[in-house]
Design goal:
alpha+beta, DUF4331 domain-containing protein, five-stranded antiparallel β-sheet, 465 residues, DUF4331, seven-stranded antiparallel β-sheet, 9 helices, single chain
Length: 465
Amino acid sequence: MSSHREAPEIAKDPVADSSDLYAFVSPDKRDTVTLIANYVPLQLPSGGPNFFEFGDDVRYEIHIDNDGDGRPDVTYRFEFTTEITNPNSFLYNTGPIDSLDSENWNRRQFYSLTRVADGREHRLAHKLPCPPCNVGPLSTPKYSELVRQATYSLSTGERVFAGQRADGFFVDLGAIFDLGTLRPFQQLHVAGKKIFKAEGEPVNATDRMNVHSIAVQVPLGRVRRSANRYGAGDRASVIGVWTSASRRQVRVLGDRGAADTATGPFTQVSRLGNPLFNEVIVPMSKKDLWNSLPPSEDKRFAQFVEQPELAALLPALYPDVFPNLDKLSKARKARADLVAILLTGIPAGLIDGFTNTTGDVQADMLRLNTAIPPTRQPDRFGVLGGDLAGFPNGRRVGDDVVSIALRAIAGVTVPLVDKTFRPDAAAAAVTPGLSAADVTAPFLGNFPYLGTPYDGFNNPPSVAS
C-alpha cells in the first residue's frame, strides 16, 4: 500500500514499480545518509524457476534535491544486465550457490552505478554482481554471506547494495481495501457494526513477501549543498529524496524468437517520494499522470492534499467517531498541515526544535533534516511520537507510516496551523494495528537494514513445521 500496485498502468509492470522509499541518517554511521528504494513488490518467495529480478530494460534512480526546487541535484542511477551461464538448463541453479561466482548459479545479474551531479555523469562502479534470490536451504545455504559479498564500499565513499530483501512494509491490505476497514475498530464501521461484535486482529498482508532493493549509503557531504554550517535549523541541512523508474519510449517486439528492441529516450513510468501519496491522495484518473511527472510539477495535485478524500470518508465510514473532522471537511478549509507535511516540509516554529522545510515549491519528496541525529530508542510514530528523527523527517525502515498518515489525515496535525481546532479523541488512536513486530524477518542494525529475504522452501510455512 505504501506504493504497491498504486496506479493502473504500473500495476501491470511490477519490474518498474517502486513500492517503498526510505531515507534516514545512518544510525551506525552518523556521517552518512542511507537511501533505499524497493521495486518488484509482493514477491512470492517460492516463485521459481524464473525467480524475481531487476529489469535489464529499466533505469532505476534515486534522486536528491538539496536546493528546494523539486528537481534533482544529485542522482544515483542503477542499470542492470543479466547473464545465463548454462543455456541448456531450465534451472535457476544446479547446486548450492556458495559465492557470487558459483558455477552452480545459472542466471546472474550485474549492475552499473552512475552518479549524476552538476550536469555531469560519473560512473562509480561497473558490473557489480547482485546476490541470488533466496531459493532455500539447499540452494542458498549461507545467504547472509552472499549478501556480505554483494555489499560494496566504493572509493568515493559510498556503500551500495542491489538485490532481494524481505519486504519490511507492514499493512493490513485486505481490511483497508474492504471499504476502509480498520480491524481494531471494525465494530464501529458503518457496515461492519452489522456483522462484527468486537475488534479484530490485524493481518500483515505483505509479511513473508520479498522485494528487490537498491540501496546506497552516502557521506553527508555528497548530498548536501555547500554551506557555512549545517545546524538543525539551517535550510542547507535539509534534502528532498524520491525514486523513479524509466523505460525507453519505443519497444519493438521481436518476431519468432528474435530479441525485443528498445530505443528512444528514457521516459519515467514510476516514482515515489512520501509513502501513500499516489496510493491515497491522488485520484484514480490521475495516478498514471502523476507517475510520469517530476516532483516540481506537484502543484497540479495540491488540491487533493488540501482536501483529501480520505478525510471526508473517515467520518462517513465511522459515524459519530470523527465529528470535529467531519465539520472541518465540510467547511472545505484547505489542510495547510498536510501541505506542509507532504509538499513543502514543516517550517520552523510549528514543532519545537524541528524543521524540514525546503521552501515554497510544492513537491512530493521525503524531506530529511540531516542535522537531526538518529534516536537511540526510535519511536515508531516518528515526529508524532516526539521522535524528530522519524517520519515525516525522512523515513526509517521501522516507522509506522500508515498509522502516522492516518492520524495526520484524521486531524492530529491540524493544531500545528490552527490552534482553535480540537482533534477528535479517536484521531490519536486510529491505526490498522500493526508494527514492525508483525514483520517476520527482523530488520538489520546495519546496511542494508532490510531483513534477509524469505526463502521459497520455508515460505509459506509447511504443515510439518
